[in-house]
């Protein structure tokens, strides 16, 4: 199948999945954060995870800026190893690279994704899925993971906002059950709270760092090279090496000092 930039029907489908709780089971609901897991369909090989957080004193516009601003992400996303944009497809779609640190002793993961965004009045959506780019093959020290579909829905409520995050990712590994449980019960809620805290600090940070540079709002500021969808292909999970990490024990895993202190603060 050819690579296609998401259209209105794709965004509408994503919004509907974020807002509809039918077929979803709550795994965590505490301190303004809810985490659901999708009741797995027979046709699905990878489970869907959905999260929601109410962000008081954070506007939808600020949330949207924070999720787009890769320069700022390097300040608050401690799990990220590297991220950069590769090229633009349209005024609201690009291709980029992201790698993140997995809990030890798992191998770190990375992605190449096609990302698209859509402002809708006071609400916003950002969605992505994995693609292959000939100049960015799989790296030796990383497991190339696959985003089947991942994205954010930001809903405005005046000076407050609500953030939905939904993801269906194939991490390309036979992961032990403790990892899956850790994601839904600890990692996912922590990540949502971390985004919220980053949003509270963003306006002050942005005033000191290229305050008028927002290419996601002003396409004329975008200096990325143009690329064609024909240069890309879909990243199929079955074409990547499957790493068996199912035998790794939780005792060998660790939570960083930052994560531990964060969970205590929360």
Automatic annotation (TrEMBL):
Which SUPFAM superfamilies did the record assign? Bet v1-like
Pfam families with a match to the protein in the record: START (PF01852)
A single Gene Ontology CC term: cytosol
- Where is composition skewed (Basic and acidic residues) in this entry? 249-266
The record's section on PROSITE patterns has: START
Please provide the record's keywords in A-Z order: Acetylation, Cell projection, Cilium, Cytoplasm, Flagellum, Lipid transport, Lipid-binding, Membrane, Phosphoprotein, Transport
Q: Which GO terms describe its molecular function?
A: lipid binding
The record's Gene Ontology biological-process terms are: lipid transport
Give a yes or no for keyword Phosphoprotein in this entry. Answer: yes
Q: Which stretches of sequence are listed as region Disordered?
A: 239-266
- Residue ranges of every copy of the START domain listed in the record: 22-204
Localization (cell): Cell projection, Cilium, Flagellum; Cytoplasm; Membrane
Check the record and name the InterPro entries matching this protein. STARD10_START (IPR041951), START-like_dom_sf (IPR023393), START_lipid-bd_dom (IPR002913), START_lipid_transfer (IPR051213)
PANTHER family cross-referenced by the UniProt entry:
PHOSPHATIDYLCHOLINE TRANSFER PROTEIN (PTHR19308), START DOMAIN-CONTAINING PROTEIN (PTHR19308:SF2)
Report the protein name in the record: START domain-containing protein 10
Q: Which organism is it from?
A: Acipenser oxyrinchus oxyrinchus
């Amino acid at each position: 199948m050819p690579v296609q930039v998401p259209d209105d029907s794709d965004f509408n489908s994503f919004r509907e999945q974020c807002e509809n709780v039918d077929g979803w089971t709550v795994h965590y609901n505490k301190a303004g954060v809810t985490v659901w897991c999708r009741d797995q369909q027979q046709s699905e090989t990878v489970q869907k995870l959905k999260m929601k957080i109410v962000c008081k004193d954070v506007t939808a516009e600020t949330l949207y800026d924070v999720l787009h601003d890769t320069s700022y992400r390097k300040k608050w996303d401690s799990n990220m190893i590297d991220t950069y944009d590769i090229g633009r497809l349209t005024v609201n779609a690009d291709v980029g690279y992201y790698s993140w640190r997995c809990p030890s002793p798992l191998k770190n993961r990375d992605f190449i994704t096609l990302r698209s965004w859509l402002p809708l009045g006071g609400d916003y959506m950002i969605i992505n899925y994995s693609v292959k780019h000939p100049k960015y093959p799989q790296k030796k020290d990383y497991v190339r993971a696959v985003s089947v579909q991942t994205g954010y829905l930001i809903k405005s409520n005046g000076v407050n906002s609500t953030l939905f995050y939904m993801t269906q990712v194939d991490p390309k590994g036979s992961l032990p059950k403790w990892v899956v449980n850790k994601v839904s019960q600890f990692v996912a809620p922590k990540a949502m709270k971390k985004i919220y805290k980053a949003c509270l600090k963003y306006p002050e940070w942005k005033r000191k760092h290229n305050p008028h540079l927002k290419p996601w709002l002003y396409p004329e500021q975008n200096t990325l090279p143009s690329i064609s969808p024909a240069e890309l292909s879909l990243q199929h999970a079955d074409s990547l090496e499957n790493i068996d990490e199912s035998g790794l024990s939780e005792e060998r895993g660790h939570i960083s000092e930052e994560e531990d202190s964060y969970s205590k603060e929360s």
